[in-house]
Write a structure and sequence with these properties.
This protein is of the alpha+beta class and about 400 residues long. The protein has 16 helices and 12 strands. The longest helix has about 40 residues. Keywords: Cell membrane, Membrane, Transmembrane, Transmembrane helix.
């Protein structure tokens, strides 16, 4: 009965009801859509960071991360290969790399880059560098001695292309400057322009020949089937290495240790979202209280008459709260539908931030961000709006119940 009376009361003033419904609808929509946008940004940052030669776990010789020179590479990669085969869960992929800072130059241009010696087949399963990233030319062969693959942005800056020569320079194992001429075999694309300018790829044999290496390897990278397995698997790898190769000190790091900025952001993202929820709700809550309070004050004589006819104060509180609950439920349904429709409309095209690429890439964001909606965030947004909306409606409901029949009927 209360909900029937509340429903009829709502439509006694349709204009006021529609205004309040619009406020709730926009509030719920903004919570869902902007949360999905924020999750999309976070997903983009995570994907780019892990996909750009990080993986879920990395293994280095102790000291290499602090001073990444070739002298600090691990002397032999065989013990790590054995440990990975023993400990990695099914569905995992791993690769080895030789990495060093160096210089790439042509007849006219010079730039600092990170030279990466890779096994192309293994690398494609762990990072972005694979056939799908190839924009022009061909992918590296496993033993190509003089082939190099460069990023599209670097090739554009150097005004060069497939088939042209480049010279790489880096410090070798004896501390001398080693150099070697390569011919561009392919040009790759990446989500971030900084990646395209910052990394050039050669085969592992080519890197070893250039730097005078024997069996040395700079790092191993691992991609697991589930990111949540990172910490326990890293512990197993570390234990296996201590047992199999006690003479060499290794560092086994998870993505959280390799990407401390993103890890810190992830740890605080829930706090940011709840603060955003609170800001939106404060704006929406004032609208709810003001509108319901205005409706109560306009109906003072009506409440006085109901009390004179025997309606208890608690029943009046329930009646006003029922009106608020109906408004909240209808507004939330509309807000949810609008939020889902907005996210669905952008699920294929995303939001293009190419015009702000320089700024967005500073945070590791892709040029295009796709909103990501999760059940937990939708439930949290709706629960927050419903519970707090009902709570702020208590004040006008109690005020309506406190009118006495005499003061209500004498109200003008």
């Amino acid at each position: 009965m209360f909900f029937q009376m509340a429903w009829r009361n709502l439509w006694r003033n349709p204009k006021r009801t529609f205004v309040l419904l619009a406020a709730i609808l926009v509030g719920v929509w903004s919570l869902i859509f902007f949360t999905a946008f924020m999750m999309g940004m976070l997903d983009s940052m995570m994907h780019n960071a892990i996909n750009t030669l990080t993986g879920h776990i990395q293994v280095h010789a102790q000291g290499f991360r602090d001073d990444p020179v070739i002298q600090n590479a691990m002397p032999d990669g065989a013990p790590v290969e054995n440990a990975l085969r023993e400990t990695l869960p099914q569905g995992s992929h791993w690769t080895m790399r030789i990495r060093m800072d160096g210089v790439v130059n042509t007849a006219r241009d010079t730039a600092g880059v990170n030279i990466v010696g890779v096994d192309p087949e293994r690398e494609a399963a762990v990072s972005f560098f694979g056939p799908k990233a190839l924009a022009e030319g061909a992918m590296l062969g496993k033993d190509d001695p003089y082939a190099i693959v460069v990023g599209r942005a670097l090739a554009k800056d150097f005004d060069t292309g497939v088939g042209k020569k480049m010279v790489l320079m880096a410090q070798d194992t004896s501390g001398e400057i080693a150099s070697r001429a390569f011919r561009i075999k392919g040009i790759y694309t990446a989500e971030l322009e900084a990646t395209e300018k910052g990394y050039v790829f050669v085969s592992i044999p080519a890197a070893r020949d250039m730097l005078g290496l024997d069996k040395q390897i700079s790092e191993f990278a691992v991609l697991l089937p589930d990111i949540s397995q990172s910490a326990p698997v890293a512990q197993k790898i570390s234990a296996a290495l201590k047992q199999d190769d006690p003479g060499t000190a290794y560092e086994v790091d998870t993505w959280k240790e390799l990407l401390p900025l993103i890890s810190a952001y992830l740890g605080n993202v829930d706090t940011y979202m709840y603060l955003w929820y609170l800001v939106v709700f404060i704006a929406m809550g004032f609208g709810i209280v003001n509108t319901i309070l205005m409706a109560v004050l306009e109906r003072i004589r009506e409440f006085g008459l109901l009390k004179a006819l025997g309606m208890k104060p608690w029943w009046i509180v329930r009646l006003v709260l029922a009106e608020a609950v109906l408004l909240l439920v209808i507004g939330m349904i509309g807000g949810n539908l609008l939020g889902f429709a907005s996210v669905a409309a952008l699920s294929h095209t995303g939001i293009d931030f190419s015009a702000f690429a320089r700024g967005s890439q500073y945070f590791g964001m892709s040029r295009v961000v796709y909103p990501v909606i999760t059940l937990n965030n939708v439930v949290a947004a709706n629960l927050l709006v419903f519970v707090l909306g009902a709570l702020v409606s208590v004040y006008p409901a109690v005020k309506a119940a406190r009118f006495t029949p005499v003061e209500a009927l004498t109200h003008t």
